[in-house]
């Protein structure tokens, strides 16, 4: 298990300015972020002494680039006259944030302008090629980049699709301390003297597909700045686009490909045989039927031709069971030791024909519930993506080490798919779908699980969070941590957590961190397994824990009382504990055991909770079910004996 996240952060804003060039040490990163924990001054002195003894400072100072000083800069940003839309946008973003940090607004020019000594070369251009550098563009691909200093020039160069843009954000984030916590909430340091140290680095993402499937994280600028290429985010051409599924072909497509209302009455044999009967409702396909294969193939080819900008199309089971029990399908399932056998047979046949006409496109299918187990001998074709789903698992402990039977079984399945799948993606789950607001102790496992996937050759990760309403349980925190670890699975989780808490909650960071520790320490110390359908009476919650949590959130509100916007964020985040208190109280009343002091807490928090929900814009308490707030309020009031105005 990864080291638990425990830190009581303290923020020293006076240390956040002018510390841009302390190199790549964790100490330097910590200072650039403006955060110092206990013994910070001692660490500063000892670390500085160590650096002085080890680094040739004369060389470093002679080679650093003074991009701006006193609000003035000699530098220009140079792009090709034929730069891609995302490269042009990268230049605008670089110009904007450098101005915000230093007060100097660097001109953006093309490579047709005569050269000068002080230049930031952004992307491939005539000016860059004149330097004669050796850059392996094929290795960088569409998203990788290099950051390099040559003389007085700074080079940001990568793939034209998103690499130049990601390289720009890499410079701003990794070397200048910028952070984008949530849409509209960022940390942009200021520097009287903005200096870039000597750089020679190459960055290529380990994951080709990075999806933060969270309502609060669909903003295109936030997604691009955090370097996620989410299919659901509002990423435009200027952001370099995204990993896009064919329209309507994201997941669970069997009914779309072969609609029962069109075919069942005349061809019931196209659909799954279950207990001796062909099903029209809640059916699957008979995957070994040649006509079914033909229809699916024709539909996919038409869909690709109609939507050529998309990259991947899903040929996947409907979101229920009822797989086909006909003799042909089950003979193949027995041969392969998995119900994936017939499904993969169909998918491979479709993919084979697609490859002939559209060799640059991919076909995806799910390894999900009854198809999760890998087949014995069948192998996915090279243009087939297997998307393995972790829906049955415990999410309060790391997948790699959890002793629950569900997690043990998942480990076996991912090992099997790693051995046979040329392209393996994962569909992971990071919210409580039955209770969107319920405290869900999975913040400590986010990085561990992503690293576990990467270690098993997973190349794409879809993290399904609360996607159909804003402001679910700690949505902004979860989205930020997920984005950080998807881009860089080795990103320091302590840094990620404390920088978010300080940046998003300001002076309330300490009690909120104490709340997170309270919640996570319990499931770790008691080895409590929590699924994505946990309820208010789940053993990971107790009355005592929630009363302690209520006090911590009360402290957080008091600490931000003079900061209206931060206080609003605190109150919205507090809804999670309020929800647990009132919903446990509902169950306690029904069981005839509603006692003080928990009763007092529920009655006290009822009205503030309802007011916050109304103001927050929350539209659902569980997946797929719109919230009728007036009815929810009146039902709880009746149960609690509260008279409403």
Describe the structure.
The model is unreliable at 1-60 (pLDDT under 50). The protein is built from 22 helices and 20 strands. The relative contact order is 0.08. The chain has 645 residues and is an alpha/beta fold. Helix 15 packs parallel to helix 16. The strands form six sheets. Strands 3-2-4-6-5-10 form a six-stranded mixed sheet, covered by helices on one side. It has a six-stranded parallel sheet with strand order 11-18-17-16-15-14. It is flat and about 80 Å long.
Global structural class: alpha/beta
What's the total count of β strands?
A: 20
Distance between the termini: 51 Å
Largest sheet: number of strands, sense, barrel closure: 6 strands, mixed
| Helix share, percent | 40-55%
Low-pLDDT parts are 1-60
Shape: flat
Number of DSSP helical runs: 22
Give the overall average pLDDT. 92
Spatial ordering of strands, largest sheet: 3-2-4-6-5-10
In short:
The protein is of the alpha/beta class. The protein has 22 helices and 20 strands.
Please tag this protein with its features.
alpha/beta, six-stranded mixed beta sheet, 13% strand, flat
């Amino acid at each position: 298990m990864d080291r638990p996240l425990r830190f009581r952060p303290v923020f020293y804003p006076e240390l956040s300015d002018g510390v841009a060039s302390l190199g790549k040490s964790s100490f330097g990163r910590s200072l650039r972020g403006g955060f110092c924990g206990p013994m910070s001054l001692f660490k500063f002195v000892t670390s500085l002494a160590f650096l002085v003894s080890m680094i040739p400072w004369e060389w470093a100072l002679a080679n650093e680039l003074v991009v701006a000083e006193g609000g003035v800069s000699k530098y220009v940003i140079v792009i090709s006259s034929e730069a891609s839309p995302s490269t042009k946008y990268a230049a605008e973003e670089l110009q904007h944030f450098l101005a915000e940090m230093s007060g100097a607004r660097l001109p953006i020019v093309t490579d047709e302008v005569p050269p000068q000594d002080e230049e930031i070369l952004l992307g491939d251009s005539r000016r860059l090629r004149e330097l004669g550098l050796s850059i392996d563009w094929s290795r960088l691909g569409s998203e990788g980049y290099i950051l390099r200093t040559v003389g007085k020039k700074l080079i940001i160069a990568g793939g034209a699709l998103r690499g130049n843009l990601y390289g720009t954000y890499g410079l701003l984030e990794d070397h200048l301390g910028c952070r984008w916590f949530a849409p509209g909430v960022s940390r942009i340091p200021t520097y009287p003297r903005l200096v870039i140290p000597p750089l020679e680095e190459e960055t290529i993402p380990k994951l080709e597909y990075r999806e933060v499937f969270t309502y609060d994280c669909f903003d295109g600028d936030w997604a691009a700045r955090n370097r996620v290429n989410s299919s659901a985010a509002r990423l435009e051409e200027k952001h370099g686009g995204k990993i896009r599924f064919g329209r309507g072909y994201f997941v669970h497509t069997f009914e779309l490909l072969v609609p029962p209302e069109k075919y069942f009455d005349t061809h019931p044999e196209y659909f799954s045989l279950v207990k001796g009967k062909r099903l029209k409702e809640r059916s699957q396909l008979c995957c070994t039927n040649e006509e079914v294969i033909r229809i699916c193939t024709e539909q996919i080819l038409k869909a690709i031709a109609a939507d050529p900008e998309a990259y991947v199309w899903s040929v996947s089971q409907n979101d229920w069971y009822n797989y086909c029990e006909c003799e042909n399908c089950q003979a193949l399932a027995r041969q392969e030791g998995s119900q994936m056998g017939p499904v993969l047979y169909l998918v491979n046949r479709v993919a084979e024909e697609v490859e002939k006409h559209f060799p640059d496109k991919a076909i995806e299918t799910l390894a999900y519930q009854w198809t999760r187990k890998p087949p014995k001998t069948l192998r996915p074709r090279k243009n087939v993506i297997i998307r393995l789903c972790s829906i049955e698992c415990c999410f309060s402990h790391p997948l790699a080490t959890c002793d629950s039977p569900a997690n043990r079984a998942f480990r076996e399945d991912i090992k099997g798919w790693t051995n046979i799948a040329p392209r393996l993606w994962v569909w992971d789950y990071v919210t409580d779908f039955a209770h969107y607001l319920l405290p869900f102790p999975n913040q400590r496992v986010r990085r561990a699980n992503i690293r576990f996937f990467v270690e098993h050759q997973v190349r794409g990760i879809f993290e399904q969070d609360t996607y159909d309403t804003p402001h679910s349980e700690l949505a902004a925190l979860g989205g930020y941590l997920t984005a950080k670890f998807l881009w860089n699975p080795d990103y320091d989780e302590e840094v990620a957590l404390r920088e978010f808490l300080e940046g998003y909650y300001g002076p309330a960071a300490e009690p909120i961190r104490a709340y997170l520790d309270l919640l996570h320490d319990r499931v770790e110390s008691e080895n409590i397994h929590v699924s994505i359908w946990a309820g208010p009476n789940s053993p990971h919650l107790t009355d005592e824990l929630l009363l302690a949590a209520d006090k911590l959130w009360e402290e957080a509100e008091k600490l931000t009382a003079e900061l209206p916007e931060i206080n609003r964020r605190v109150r919205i985040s507090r809804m999670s504990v309020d929800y647990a208190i009132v919903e446990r109280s509902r169950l306690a009343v029904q069981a005839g055991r509603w006692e003080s002091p928990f009763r007092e807490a529920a009655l006290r928090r009822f009205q503030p909770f309802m007011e916050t929900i109304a103001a927050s814009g929350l539209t659902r308490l569980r997946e797929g079910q719109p919230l009728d707030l007036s009815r929810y309020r009146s039902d709880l009031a009746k149960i609690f004996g509260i008279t409403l105005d």
